[in-house]
Amino acid sequence: MNIMMLLEMTSATFPDRPAFTDGSTGVSLTYAELFAAAKTRAATLRASDAARMVKLDVSNLGTPMSLFASAWAGVPYVPINYRLTNDEIEKLLERVTPAYLVTHEERAEHLGTLPEVLAVQTRHFVDDNHHSEHADAEHESWSMDPDEVAVLLFTSGTTGAPKAAVLRHKHLVSYILSSVEFASAGDDEAALVSVPPYHIAGIAAILSSVYSGRHVVQLPNFSADAWIALAREHRVTTAFVVPTMLARIVEALEGEADAGMPHLQSLSYGGGKMPLSVIEKAMTLFPETDFSNAYGLTETSSTITVLGPDEHRSAAASEDDGVRRRLVSVGRPLPGVELEIRDDEGRVVGTGERGEIYVRGEQVSGEYEGRGAVTDNDGWFPTRDAGSVDAEGYLFLEGRADDVIVRGGENLSPGEIEDVLLTHPTVADAAVVGVPSEQWGEAVAAVVVARRDAEIDSAALQEHVKTHMRSSRVPERIEVWDELPYNETGKLLRRVVKAELEKP
Amino acid sequence: MPELKTGARLQSAVCDGEIMVVVAPGGDVNITCGGAPMVDSGADVDRVAVDPDHAVGIVIGKRYINADETLEVLCVKAGDGSLALDGDLLLLKDTKALPKTD
User: Fold this and answer.
1) In what order do the strands lie in the sheet with A302-307?
2) For the ranges A136-150, A211-225, A385-399, A439-453, which has the lowest average pLDDT?
3) Number of structural domains in chain B
4) Does a structural domain hold residue B66?
5) Is residue A31 in some structural domain?
6) Domain span at residue A356?
7) Is residue B102 domain-resident?
8) What is the number of other CB atoms lying within 10 angstroms of the CB of residue A137?
9) Do B20 and A201 touch (CB under 8 A)?
């Protein structure tokens, strides 16, 4: 098993089909060209004796080239977040030497002076003239050992140093084989990829599109206007966005009757909590588009549950509150993925009860470099995400397992309280956290953002929560901020909110 | 043939066909393409004639299973021979289309 095999199959089937287009330059590669590029760069990489291939750059043609060249050479691929500080980048690089580093001009010179780092400018890496055409005959093929490491991804740890999640070829290939039909894309299909290349969604987007034979258009730096322009220019048929991206796209289309993108067949989203108001507006602006909500983690090789297009439509049209609520669920597990909700004692909880989400399946790695797998003896991986499953098997996310507020011995879910706050007409956004309390151990505190032209009345908000929930859920403290802190994939940084509120 | 390994790549002795093992049954098995035993991909092989009863062919990207699904393989290169396990022809696996998620 090797992810190179996915590219080989598509290159043999659709050699002349465009594979990748860099949206910022308009330069394209066909599938046959990408396959040939992977081969020559694998030879270059092997000759360098590097133990890791590091890509530190925005999405460009060098992204799929470096991913597949790594797989061909049998060298783990390590994409690093280019938004980190120099200090943070150097610390991560130290952990992956000897490294063959592909990065942009401004960084190559300095980082190339670090010990055991061979820095190559992205434009040289992408240019054929910098590689020998005569790949060594001994390595005409790649290893099929399923246990070889394909990708190391640094996860944004909430505390301490980032952990490097280990994804082996067997995890990534299993994910693709169970979720994508080979060569299923028509020659008029194009995917717009705007998620960063160092994110699991960015890697999954490359592999899924390659196996289906779809043309990928890369958007290196997201802005709503650029996304809309590229989608129209390339008549994009499928795209994945994180909630903050969709919110900005919806905002940019404000005042227009619809998005004017009848070609966009499917739009999937994930990576954070999607506000109901955003998805409802998006469904109106893209009336012909199929929406899917995907939930997954780095450690699970991307998507593990999906709420599909039909489920979106039936939930949106339903009179039944229980069915309507599914619009904010993340759907049901993919084939080959098992899911359980467990309580603090490790017991499986009943329908609708909150607990920690555990998953198991071929695509689940749950392994970190230097620490081994954190899966239990039966292969279950604790996600540290909290959630509940309804009677029909739909999964609802309820924040991180660590986010639970323990007030006077009662476990409260911040997500539920936020959902109620968000139904108030003056509230645009809300974050709920536990703050230390002498009386209760933890007390409920809320930070809210006002809607345009609205004023927040704390007493009225407390009354609003009280009419919808038990009184223990009513925030004892409410602050009004201009905006809430999010990471770039749209996850609310609750710990940042908490830290701010705990300042004396 | 010795025990099959998940992820192993095999080639046909009768055609260009190649497969990858997705689910392997335990124990020694005899997997054939076009009636002839398959060999490791990349190994030297003397081409032999295809058995006419095993000549429907295999299609790239399709998955094939035995009746009790203890064996599943993916065709990674198309060929003229049909696959069989211990003499029984493998079946084309039905796959369900899923929503695009990335």
Assistant:
1) A28-30, A18-22, A215-218, A190-193, A238-241, A266-269, A290-297, A302-307, A332-333
2) A136-150
3) 1
4) yes
5) yes
6) 330-400
7) no
8) 6
9) no
Residues in chain A: 504
Together in a domain, A112 and A130: yes
- Which of A9, A146, A309 shows the shortest C-beta gap to B99? A309
Look up tokens 């190339």; give the residue.
A112
Q: Is residue A76 part of a domain?
A: yes
pLDDT surpassing 70 at residue A139: no
Q: Are residues A466 and A334 located together in one domain of the fold?
A: no
CB contact under 8 A, A9 and B61: yes
CB contact under 8 A, B41 and A144: yes
Predicted-complex ipTM score: 0.94
User: What's the number of domains chain A is made of?
Assistant: 3
Query: Per the CB < 8 Å rule, is B101 touching A5?
Result: no
Which among B63, B74, B98 has CB closest to A179? B98
Angle CA(A357)–CA(A358)–CA(A363) in degrees, nearest 5? 120
Distance from CA of A42 to the nearest CA of B (A): 19
Q: How confident is the model at residue A3 (pLDDT cuts 50, 70, 90)?
A: very high
Answer whether residue B40 shows pLDDT above 60.
yes
Range of the domain at B51: 9-92
Q: Which of A59, A175, A180 to mutate to test the interface with B (most CBs of B within 10 A)?
A: A180
Q: Which residues of A touch B22 (CB under 8 A)?
A: 177
Task: Show residues of chain B in contact with A290, CB under 8 Å.
Answer: 99
Q: What are phi and psi of A103, to 5 degrees?
A: -150, 170
